[in-house]
Specification:
9 helices, binds zinc ion
């Protein structure tokens, strides 16, 4: 059999942060492993933790929009939803100096009218270990490792100690299995 030297690509994404307590541990662990990821930030959390957002950019991670107050965008008027989105973009741009390209709507909820109005790239996910629900490191690792496939986008939340620990374990296990961690633009483009 011909040896396949091409590594299988996979992307890590983290929602709901930054967390003053857990995000620094994650950033440190990612840096140590030479892994870049994407962070979909809640605007009001970003505003409270601008240094962590700057660190993300400095470390080569992607910073995306996860609304200002973590709302379900299709449960409000388009005007209200657009305000949630633009307020977040404004705060992130102010902190990073960069235009935000990607959005992950909370609960994956978007609608057509909003999609037409909002010219950002919507990013969903392929692997969801429900880390927020179980908050158990080994369960999260197991669920991801057993379900992941090449070119998948993995969803985690860097606001739980268990998820941060799981993320770093997942990297170590999947690297052993021949996976390479890329930022999602490498998978989407
Ligand atoms: Zn979320």
């Amino acid at each position: 059999m011909k040896q396949n030297i091409e590594r299988k690509k996979v992307a890590l994404t983290f929602d709901d942060g930054p967390s003053e307590k857990y995000t620094p541990i994650l950033l440190e662990g990612l840096k140590k492993r030479g892994v870049r990821a994407a962070f979909f930030l809640v605007g009001e959390n970003a505003r409270e933790n601008p240094k962590l957002v700057q660190q993300m950019i400095k470390d080569g991670h992607i910073v995306g929009n996860h609304t200002y107050t973590h709302v379900q965008l299709n449960g409000m008027t388009v005007e209200q939803a657009m305000k949630e989105i633009t307020d977040t973009n404004d705060v992130l741009k102010k902190i990073t100096g960069q235009q935000v390209v990607y959005i992950r709507p909370p609960f994956g909820a978007f609608d057509e009218e909003l999609d037409e109005k909002c010219d950002m790239i919507q990013v969903l996910w392929n692997v969801d270990p429900l880390d927020w629900k179980c908050q158990n490191c080994s369960t999260v690792v197991k669920r991801v490792v057993e379900n992941v496939q090449e070119n998948d986008i993995i969803l985690l939340h860097d606001i739980y100690a268990s998820s941060v620990e799981a993320a770093l374990n997942i990297i170590d296990v999947l690297k052993e299995q021949g996976y390479e961690f890329v930022t999602l633009d490498e998978l989407l483009l």
